[in-house]
Amino acid sequence: MAIPKSVWENLDKNSPALVLSWCHLNNRKHDGGQHRAIRETYGKAGLGDKGLYFSSPKAGHEYDFYHLNEIMTFFDKFCK
Predict the structure, then answer these.
(1) Are 37 and 31 in contact (CB under 8 A)?
(2) Distance CA 59, CA 46 (A)
(3) 3-state secondary structure at position 22
(4) Are 23 and 31 in contact (CB under 8 A)?
(5) What is residue 16's predicted lDDT score, i.e. its pLDDT?
(6) How many CB atoms neighbour CB 64 within 10 A?
(7) CA neighbours within 13 Å on the CB side: how many for 35?
(8) What is the pLDDT of residue 56?
(9) Cβ contacts of 39 within 8 Å, gap of 6 or more
(10) Short-list 22, 3, 6, CA closest to 63
(11) What is residue 37's predicted lDDT score, i.e. its pLDDT?
(12) pLDDT, tens digit, 9 for 90 and up, residues 15-47
């Protein structure tokens, strides 16, 4: 079953734990500074080991940062 386009367009509402880049949401080019800020925020909160960061768009997905404790729940909900 294909995931409806509206789900992908509203990931921040459908899965709040999935951190989306500001640049993606605002149709901007990749901004390394934004991704570094997200990574640093997770680190300061003691959650550095709970995130997976892909620094390259070759990671195969338009979102670069995943909260590992929530990503499987998200896939279970939307990708069956």
Answers:
(1) no
(2) 25
(3) helix
(4) yes
(5) 42
(6) 23
(7) 18
(8) 45
(9) 48, 51, 53, 65
(10) 22
(11) 72
(12) 444 444 444 444 555 556 666 676 677 667 766
The token duo for 21 is 């880049």
**Helix or strand holding residue 64 (H, E):** none
Token readout for 8 is 């992908």
Residue 5 CA to residue 19 CA, distance in Å, equals 19
For residue 42 the two structure tokens come to 């997770």
Cβ proximity of 65 and 38 under 8 Å: yes
- Which of the residue ranges 5-9, 18-22, 51-55, 57-61 has the most confident prediction, judged by mean pLDDT? 5-9
User: In whole angstroms, what is the distance from residue 15 CA to residue 72 CA?
Assistant: 11
**Token pair of 71 as six digits:** 């990503």
Residue 7 is predicted with a pLDDT of: 61
Pairing of strands 65-67, 51-53: antiparallel
* Burial (CB count within 10 angstroms: exposed 0-12, middle 13-18, buried 19+), residue 72: exposed
